[in-house]
Amino acid sequence: MNKIFKVIWSKSKQCYVVVSEMAKNTTGKKKIVVAGILASLAVSTPLQDVSAVNGPGARGGWSQAQSGTAFNATEGLVVGPSMPGAFDQTTRAKGNVATVAIGAHSEAYGSSSVAMGGGTAYGDKAGTAGNVTDQGGAVALGWVTAKGNRAVALGGINTTSATGDNSFATSGGVANGDNASALNGSQATGDNSFAAAGGVANGTTNIAIGKSANAGGTAGKTGAVAIGDSATASGAATVAVGKAAQADLDNDNAFGNSVHANAGGATAVGYIVNTTGNQAFGGGSNTNVSGPAAVGIGYMSQVDGNRAVGIGSELSGTKNTASGDYSVAIGAAARGTAASATAIGKQANASKDNALAIGTGATASESSATAIGNGAVANKTNTVALGNGTNATGASAIAIGDAVTATSTAAISIGSNGTKATGYGATAIGRNAKVTAEKSVALGFDLNVAHSGSTLVGYNSNILANQATGIGSTINIDSTAQYATGIGYQVDVTGKNAVAIGSSDDSGTHTAAKAKDAIAIGTATVTTAEGATAIGKNAAASKADAIAFGTSAAASESNAVAIGKNTTASGLDSIAIGGETTATDAAKATGSKSIAVGAKSAASGQSAIALGDTAVASGLNGVALGVETTSSLDSAVAIGNKVTGSGKYSVALGYSTSASAEGALALGDSTSASGEHGLALGTLAAASNTNTIAAGHSSVASGLAATAIGLSAKAQSAGTIALGRQAVIDNKSASSMALGDSASVTNATYATALGAGAKANNYHAVALGADSETADKVSTASMTIAGNSYNFAGGTADSTISVGSGTVKRTITNVAAGRVSATSTDAINGSQLYAATQAIESNATAITSVSNAASTALSTANSAVTKADAAVSTANSTAAGYNAAKAAISSSAAAAEAAATRAATSESNAATSASNAATSASNAATSASNAATSESNAADSAALASSKAAAAATSASNAATSESNAATSASNAATSAS
C-alpha cells in the first residue's frame, strides 16, 4: 500500500486530522494507515480547523463533527460503530476502532477502513453495511469502491473499483480478485492479476499492460502476460510482448511488433513474425513458422516442416525456405524442401529427401545426394560433389576437388584440373587423372586407365590391360598383361598375371616381368619364363618355374632355386642358398633335386641338402646342416658345427660330433657313435661297438650291445649295463650290471652290483646295497649231527648274494616264511625259528628224564668196568680168556653205545648224553683191554677172569637194556611233545 498520508488523533485540536506518514501520534492511539490519498489533498487550500463535538469518543460511543470549509462538506466526520449521518447527504462510518468516513456519500465499513470523497470502503468482500466484522483496512479515495480486507481504490468517478482482499485499483481501474491490481482505466479480473495502461487481465495471475492489451482472453486462461498496445495473450502461460503481438495457445510466446504465435508452445520474435507450429520458434521480420517444433529466423524466412530449421533471408524474390520435415535451410535464399534435406549457403538448394547442399549455389537435387562447395552439383541418388565447380552426375558418384567430374554410377573423382571418372564404378584421384573404363582406379598425376577393373597409382603411367594394377612412375602395363601388377619406377609388365616391382638401374635396364605368371621384384630384375620368380637386384630367372632370390642370383633351369648373392642354381630342380653357392644337377654331377644353402656349401648327392657355411652333403638324400658339417653317405644326417655323419642312415647332432657307422646316432659336444646302430648322447660320450648306448658326460659303451648311462659311466664288456655316475664294468665281465654311483663289476661275468659303491667281483654274484661286496661261492651239501650225516637240498652253490661287506652288516627284514621240507631251498624267517625253539623248550622235562636214565646206565657200566678191572688185575688170563673178556666188554660197550644213539634220535640233547655214556663205556672197555694186554701172561688166571668178565658183560648188558628202555621212553616223550 502507498503510505503517503495517514490519519491520527490531534491532542491539541482534540480531533482526527490528516498528516504526513512521518508524523507521530503521541497519544498512543492506534494509527489508521491510508493507502494512497488523492494528489489533490496534497495541493488543496489550507484546511480549516474541525472541532469535535464529543471529543475522541470511546469504543461504542458517538462523535459528530462540524463541517469543514476545505472539503465543502455538508456533513461532518463521524467515528464510531453503527452511527448514521445526521444530515441529508449521508456520511457513514461503521466499524470498530479507527474507521474514517470523510465527505458526502462517503461510507466506511469495517475496522480501520477509510472512505474519502464520496467513496465506499467495505472491510470485507460482501460489500454490505450490515454485520461488518472486525476485519477491514479498506481504503476508498474518490468516487470509488473498495471491497475487501485491505482493498484500495483511488481516483476516478464511479468506474474505479477494487474488489477482493488486498486488491488495488486507480483512476478508473477495475480490480476484481484477491491481490488483483488495475491501474488507470485497466481491468484486472482474477486473483493475483495485474492490469495497467488500459490493459485487460482476465484470469488468475494474468498481467496486461498497454492499450487494449489482453491477457487471458475471453476464456480467462491463467498465467498469461500481454505487454504492449493491442498485445494479446489468450492462452494459459502465454507471453505477448510488443504492439499487436499475439500469443494464442497455451505456452505460446510472442515478442515484437505484429508477431503472432499460434500453436501451443510456439515462440515468435521480431516484426510481423507468424509462428503457428506447436513448440516452434520464429524470429526476425516477415517470418512464417508453421511446422511443429520448427525454428525460423531471419527476413522472409518460411519454415513449414516438422522440426525444420530456417535461418536466412529472401534474395531476388526467393525466400529462405525449410519446408520438409527435419529440413535445414541456412543462408540467403537457401532452400531445404524435402524431408531431412539440408541447404547451407547462399542460394544452396537441397530438394530431395536426405539431400545435403553446402556452399554458394550448391545443388543436391536427388535423395541422399551431397553437394559441398561453390557451384557444386549432385543430381543423382547418393552422389557426393565436394569442391568448387564439382559435378557428380552419376548415381552414388563422388566428385571432390576443383572442377572435378564423376559422371557414371558409383564413380569417384578426386583432384583438380579436369580429373575425370567416366566409367561405371571408376575412381580417379589426382590432378588430371582419367579413368574411362568401368571399375578401374587411377591415383596420382597424369594417369590414364583405359581398361576395366584396373588400378593405377603414381605418375605418368599407363594401363592398357583389363584388371591390372600399377603403382609408381612410368609404369607400363601392356594390353597382353591382363591381371598384371607393376609397382615402382620404369617398370614393364607384358605377361598375363605377371608381377613386376622395382626400378631401373643406372644402365637403364627396367624391372620387367615378361611372361605369364612371372614375378620380378628388385632393381633391374628380370623374369623371362612362365612362372619364374626373381627377387633382388639384377636377379634373373630364365626358365619355367625357376626362382632366383638375392643380388645377382641366377636360376637358369626349370624348377631351380637360387637364394643368395651371386648364387647360381643351374640344375633341374636344384636349390642353392647362400653366397657364392652352387647346386648342380644329375646332368653335371650327382645332385639332382639337391639343396645347398650357405657360403661354399655343396650338395652333390641326389636330393641332398647342405645348409651352412662349407656344409657338404655328398650322399643320396644326405643332410648337412651347420658350419663345416659333412654328410658323406646315403641318408646320413649331420646337424651342428663341425659335425660329421659318415655312416649310412647315421645321425650326428651337436658340436664336433661324429656318427661314423651305419645307423649310428651321436648327440652332444665331441660325441662319437662309431658302432653300427650305436647311440651316444652327451659331451665326450662314446658308443664304439654295435648296438651300444652311451649317455652322459664322458660315458663309454665299448662292449657289444653294452649300455653306459651317467657321468663317466663305462660298460666295456658285451651285454653289460653301467648305470650311474662312474659306474664301471670292465672288459672281462660280460652280461653284468652295475647300477649306482661308483658301482662296479670286475672280472665277473653275469654279476650284478646294485647300489652306490657296490662291488660284484665274482661269477654270477650279486652285491645288493650301498658298499656291499661279494665273495667266492660256498657250497654246503651235508652236515653230521651226533654222528649222523644229513644231506641238504641245494647243497651246491653257483654264486653268492651279499648285502654288506666285512665292515657293513645288514639284517634282512620282511622275509616271508619259507617252506620247511627235506627238499626246500627257501629261506627261514625268525618266526619259524621261534616256533622250533618253543617246541624244544616244551620237551625240557622229557629230555631231563632221558639224561637221568643215561646217567644211571653209565654208573652201572662204570661199576661193571671196575669189577672187570679187578678181575683182570687178579687173573692171569689166557689168550682165549682174554679174547672172551674182550668180546664181552666190546659187546657191552656196543650195546651201551646203541642205546645212547637211539636216545639221541628222539632228542638231540638226550642223544648227546647217551653218546657221552657210550663213550665212557668204550673207554672202560679200552682200559680193560689194556689191562688184559698187560696181564696177558697171566694165563693161569684166564678162566677166572673170563668168568668174571662174563658176569661183568652180563651186568653191562643189563645196564644197556635199562638205558635203551630209558631212551625209548625219552623218544616217546619227544614224540608226544612234537
Automatic annotation (TrEMBL):
Pfam family, one: YadA_head
GO-annotated cellular components: outer membrane
Signal peptide from the UniProt entry: none
SUPFAM superfamilies noted in UniProt: Adhesin YadA, collagen-binding domain
Domain Trimeric autotransporter adhesin YadA-like head, residue spans: 99-119, 219-243, 317-333, 338-362, 364-389, 421-445, 513-539, 541-567, 589-613, 617-641, 646-669, 673-698, 701-727, 748-772
Domain (ESPR): residue spans on this chain: 1-44
Region annotated Disordered, chain positions: 955-978
UniProt xrefs under Gene3D superfamilies: 1.20.5.170, Serralysin-like metalloprotease, C-terminal
Coiled-coil region list: none
Domain of life: Bacteria
Protein name: Hep/Hag repeat protein
